[in-house]
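During the reporting period the student researcher (J.K.) took over the structure-prediction task from the postdoctoral fellow and processed the backlog of single-chain submissions. One of the processed entries is reproduced below for the supervisory committee.
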Amino acid sequence: MIGFIEGEQLETGENSCLVLTSGGVGYEVFLPSHTFAQLPGKGERVRFFIHTQVREDALELFGFDSWDERETFQTLISINRVGARTALAILGIYRPDDLRRLVIDEDVHGLTLVPGIGKKTGQQIFLELKFKLKLDGLPQRQSASAASGGSLARDAVAGLANLGYSEDEAAFVVKEVLEAEPDLDVGGILRAALKRMAKRAG
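J.K. obtained the following structure tokens:
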């Protein structure tokens, strides 16, 4: 199985990158949205840790920035009813440590921020993550202000969705805003998110 790829970025698809290796073989690699958004550009070097998925009708490669993210992806797809596309969508919003903090903070509803995951499915995924994710090295509980971040993010995403933005785009931008300015309230998050979206649109 392919476990790592390094080469030249030839082209990009909707959520994939075509990588030309030194051996002259091009591989299409599907990526989480945050990794796709940070691709360097055509002709530049890229490198990914790879999970290879073999099906009867296809062989697909999924690429990640780190070994930890690859292992987290494999944990996610081991959960009943979580396929590769859903796992990619989860990792597009939450990094591995973010998922661990969801578990530590008992934020059962955090996964419903991911497009396509409803309350019932989110609860099921959360319960299995509690037993499958490695939580070593993280504090067992965040401060009250940090723990409230999940509800602030949900409210901000809902506000942006009401303005017509997709939940996927809104969740990604809200996460960026909170990483840069973790002490904002919902109004501040919305203002900062709208500024970022306006810049990208311009």
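The committee noted the following: The radius of gyration is 18 Å.
J.K. will present the remaining backlog at the next meeting.
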